[in-house]
Amino acid sequence: MKRFSYLYILIFVLFNLVACINPVSDFEQAAYLKFITVEASLSDLTEAQKVKLYWSADRIDGTSGFTPITGAKVWLTTASGSTINYVESGVSAAKGVYSSPDTFKGAVGETYTLHFRLSNGKEYESSPEKMRKAPEIENLITRFEVNDVYGKADPRRAGFNIYADFQDDPAAGDYYQWFWKHYERAEFCVTCYSGAKYNFATTNCDPPRIPTDEVWNYICSAPCWNLTFSNELNIMSDALMNGQRLTGKKVARVPFDNYSKYYLRLEQRSITKDAYDYYQSLSNQTQNTGTLFDVPAETRFSLNIKSKSDPTEKLLGIFDVYAVKKEFFISTVKQAYLLTKGH
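The chain above was modelled as a monomer; its predicted structure follows.
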């Protein structure tokens, strides 16, 4: 009898072990909800103002984490009584992206409210956000520095530290963000591997009948640039230095990637308190233990976008309204070559 019991238990365990190796697909998490995700920014720059709408994923199936929200109506209203309608992109690769008219840009001193209505009739709006003037960048200093903490092959080892001087506004409650964009001249615009040749009609690399080790590089027919953006949040409140002149404020750390001329655009942004608080919560999360789940989930939700019919509904993202002061610099990186040659 005891032998039969052991055999029965063994068969039961083996059956369950086999069952456990079957793949789980399209698994719905009962406690997991999807949220509307909003990427909305408005600046005083003469460039496209965009709103991106997505659904966060509500299933574990290996697919993309976000689903574009199409067919929505998006518009802005101003305190002065104007309405600016956004238009959804017709490009399949840009679904869920809504753009303002080309001639529109934000104005310092104006207050803006974002509105959008989904195809199911649900409507959302932001709190009114005032665009505050960004202070001029009075001086900009760049220093090439090597951080010996990182290995020779680590891209974080060498880079440009950028320091700015500016005068904070005497009025209390200013918040700043710094953002940079690096332009690198592209020598080749297309590279085809395994012996493939570029098809100018289809703009694709046509594979050969028999693959080879050949690599074909096609020189750009016009000036082209590879773009690199800042990948960290750099924000500041004037709570402890209101009205003072800041000297030598570190506003960027830009990686060094080659010895050609280095062209970079630095933006000094004057952001709203809601945007500052939201970015601060994101910064705290990434500096915690490395995941977005180490702090209360509430810190990830929007601080200034709400549902009109259900104020308790949580959304992800922020309506970011800011004015900008820009500075450009070009470095010949001769000093960079001398500093890295012996390292």
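The chain has three helices and 25 strands.
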